[in-house]
Amino acid sequence: SFHKLGFSNRIITSINKIINKIQKTSTKVHNLTQLCQILGSCYLSTGQVSESIKSYEKLQEISIKLKLKTSLIKSLFNIGICYIETLERTKAIEYFENIILIIGEEKIKYKQYIIRGNCCLAFLKSCINCQQESLDLISIIESEIVEFLRTWVRGYDLLLLGKTYSNLGNMDKSLEMYN
């Protein structure tokens, strides 16, 4: 919503100043991770995808160093989204597959990232003609989307699934996702 009001560039400038100050003190790690997350989002919303990736890579670096698993998963997920935006599907696939590996046995705790990661993977696989892999991923997540994801996230993922079904040639199921 700040983007619609034209505040994104001001937010980006302000957050960059704050990050530089926080990095010098290094006592506000949680604040730094949150700021990197917001900064990456602002960059992405203004079309500055390479800067967004840099912000999320900074978040990834901090998360690995401090063993912050949730922040690490968020950083990988968002970098994967950035690579979808730049049409670098192979790179995006690597990030989403890495999320699934990192989550490992903690599937219940990170359920939303399993669902969202598999949704993105299904879409990406449909783009590169790996139809069966895409269908297998859809069968894992389709029934769980409505139950586990918040409304705004669910809407995005249903649109992505609609496009996935379209790529797979199933227009009836594609249109069903849009309703």
Report on the architecture of this protein.
It is built from nine helices and no strands. With 179 residues, the protein is mainly α. Helix content is 81%, strand content 0%.
Kindly list the characteristics that best describe this protein.
globular; single chain; mainly alpha
Strands, count: 0
Distance between the termini: 25 Å
Helix content: over 70%
Global mean pLDDT: 86
Poorly predicted regions: none
Number of helix segments? 9
Helix-strand makeup class: mainly alpha
Radius of gyration over alpha carbons? 17 Å
Order of helices and strands: HHHHHHHHH
Largest sheet properties: none
Gross morphology: globular
Assess the beta-strand content as a share of residues: under 5%
Give a quick rundown of the structure.
This protein has 179 residues and is mainly alpha-helical.
Task: Give the helices and strands, then pairings.
Blueprint (H helix, E strand, L loop, with lengths): L7 H18 L3 H17 L3 H18 L2 H17 L3 H15 L7 H17 L3 H18 L2 H17 L3 H8 L1
